[in-house]
Amino acid sequence: MEYTPLDGKVAIITGGASGIGASTVHLFHEHGAKVVIADVQDILGQEIADKLGKNVSYIHCDVTNEDDICNLIDTTVAKHGQLDIMYNNAGIIDCPSPLGRILDTKKSDLERIISVNLVGSFLGAKHAARVMVPQRKGCILFTTSAATAIAGISSHAYAASKWAIVGVAKGLAAELGQYGIRVNCVSPFAVLGTGISAARSEADVSKAEFALSNHVGNLKGQILKAEDVARAALYLASDEANYISGLNLLVDGGYSVVNPNMVNILSANMG
């Protein structure tokens, strides 16, 4: 009999219509979960739900709108009778400059990123906890970033939003552990298909893959893709991680623990 670690569990995935969220929807469904996709990309979200079948549904949800979040949670519980996994994955990056300097950052840009990334995640966790506390069980996940472990790889606004989520997650792990609720973060390095490479040509994506594999990433010969992050989320959502809470799981190929400057200097001098 095939092992299905999420068999019988009900999961909500915000930002589930594309990128990391869509990969996670497919993987959670494959491993037995009943999945609710929450997004503002109605056509993409509904297409995934239609493709995967009756155990996957789509609900329009703007995570910055608390009424939308309430409706998402309440509709899910009304349909499935429970909520086991709340994956607060929806997020945005700075466009057109994901590495924008502070002097170039507008207050409105900061507020927009904070509103989606931090406030959206906070509201998702708040209303998931509203359901999970009486159940005395549940798993709350967040997508953050390797920017929470190493500086200089994102804009200040983006890093601030993701660092704040880690702070919220750790606080929730302390607060909600008494109810059997686990809270964790998944923090990826640059992911192809989201942000830096989305909506680009195949040639541009190939260049990005080469750069990530050979110049930027630490783990040579490997390229981080959305499905890799989804697998990390699957582990944290499953009972295999039943005593893991308060963790910020870096999916970065060791990038954050290595300072490449000396290696690069030696390589250049010895080359």
Q: Quick one: overall form? A: globular
CATH superfamily: NAD(P)-binding Rossmann-like Domain
CATH architecture: 3-Layer(aba) Sandwich
What is the CATH third-level topology name? Rossmann fold
Helix content: 40-55%
Number of helices: 8
Approximate strand percentage: 5-15%
Q: How many domains is the backbone divided into?
A: 1
Task: State the name of the first-level CATH class.
Answer: Alpha Beta
- The H/E string reads EHEHEHEHEHEHHEH
Oligomer: single chain
Q: What is the residue-averaged pLDDT?
A: 88
The strands making up the biggest β-sheet line up spatially as 3-2-1-4-5-6-7
Q: What is the strand tally?
A: 7
Structural class: alpha/beta
Give the low-confidence spans: 195-214
Could you tell me the radius of gyration in angstroms? 19 Å
Largest sheet properties: 7 strands, parallel
- N/C terminus separation: 54 Å
Molecular structure report:
The protein is of the alpha/beta class and 271 residues long. The chain has one domain (10-269): 3-Layer(aba) Sandwich (Rossmann fold), CATH 3.40.50. It has 8 helices and 7 strands; from the N terminus they run βαβαβαβαβαβααβα. Strands 3-2-1-4-5-6-7 form a 7-stranded parallel β-sheet, with helices on both faces. β2, α2 and β3 form a beta-alpha-beta unit. α1 (19-30) crosses α7 (226-237) and α4 packs parallel to α5 (156-176). Belongs to the short-chain dehydrogenases/reductases (SDR) family. Pfam families: adh_short_C2. GO terms for molecular function: oxidoreductase activity.
